[in-house]
Design goal:
This protein has 302 residues and is α/β, with parallel strands linked by helices. 40% of the residues lie in helices and 15% in strands. The protein is globular, with a radius of gyration of 19 Å. Bound molecules: phosphoric acid mono(formamide)ester.
Amino acid sequence: MDVDDFSVADYDLVFETADAMREVLGREIKKVPTLRGKSVVTVFFEPSTRTRVSFEMAAKALSADCTSIAAATSSVAKGESLLDTLRTIQSLGADLVVMRHSASGAPYLAARHLDMAIVNAGDGCHAHPTQALLDLYTIRRHLGRLAGLKAVLVGDILHSRVARSNLSAMTTLGLEVTLCGPPSLLPGSNGDAGWPACPVETDLDRALEGADVVMGLRLQLERQEQGLLPSIREYVRSYQITRERLARARPGALLMHPGPVNEGVELTPDVAHGVQSVIEEQVTNGVAIRMALLYLLLGRGQ
Ligand code: CP
């Protein structure tokens, strides 16, 4: 559901299992029989490229049967409820459902009413736990450690499920986190509803000083229509991560973004594709992390 109840040992288990999965993915034939006979269904009520495809590739690499349902082409479009749709999938024999939904808490509701395993692939503004796992895994692989690193999350923090799950994971794993963005897109430093207390900074140049990890977040462009931003141009002027701004971070600092990126808004193209960017590697590591999770949930005799 989320990483908020993960211990350091839980993270270590997922990361060590992901290392083994990376080894599988490096083979000429990227497939093991571990989940043969298991059935994984992805149900996405919101668009996705990275999360959906990487779960599907992860399931197939472990030899699980994998079926994908998009809400628009399912009976949801005829008015079927979320729970009835999921009950139908369970009756069809699924062992595990990966679900994304625009309503915060939707996977928790599903888990209360169903017997099959549910994995949260993003619920509203609440959580995106598998994204946080692949982000921390990517940092650990690059910088060799997590505790003591300084991370800055930049952008629309308040509406970001990626930021919420990363803040929880980073805090547990001993990173020092600063949240940076316009005041209208930041939780208060004492924490708003559902946000733990965390240093906030509205000046990006100051926030980036000495950072080891800089994570841009997608600016949901509709925020301007909601009156939370004066203009996109104003946002870009103050909060776009540029080469000059990134130079304030530590030499060798990682530039991350969960994607999809609005290039030219959150990041300049030279930064997005520059030597410090690990954005594509985040995507690649998503397959190993999701293989690890499917294995840990389905492959150990459960
Ligand atoms: N990061 C992420 O969740 O991307 P998708 O929306 O493409 O899955």
